[in-house]
Amino acid sequence: MQLDALDQIAAKAFEGYLVRKDLVRQFKGQYPVPTYVAEFLLGRYCASVDETEIQEGLAIVQRQLASRTVRAGEEELFKARAKEQGRV
Fold first, then answer.
1. Number of domains in the chain
2. What is the pTM of this model?
3. Residue 39: which domain range?
4. pLDDT band (50, 70, 90) for residue 58
5. I want to staple 37 with a disulfide (CB 3.0 to 4.6 A). Which of 19, 33, 67, 78 is the partner?
6. What angle, 0 to 180 degrees and rounded to 10, lies between the N-to-C axes of helices 51-68 and 35-45?
């Protein structure tokens, strides 16, 4: 995604606080979490204009959401994994 001049100024002024909404939409419906949870994680790991940092952050967010959310039908698998590891 290409940032225009206004976006560049905003990114410079609010460095570390920018959340791209197109990235938020990427996780919508994919995991059973509220939108603000995805926004928080993306703001924490993808708050940059550098594309390589964003891709690394997306991998972290994807991994965290995949390991910490329970999808419909996977409840028993999640319980077994938690019991085996001794934590949730």
1. 1
2. 0.72
3. 5-85
4. very high
5. 33
6. 140
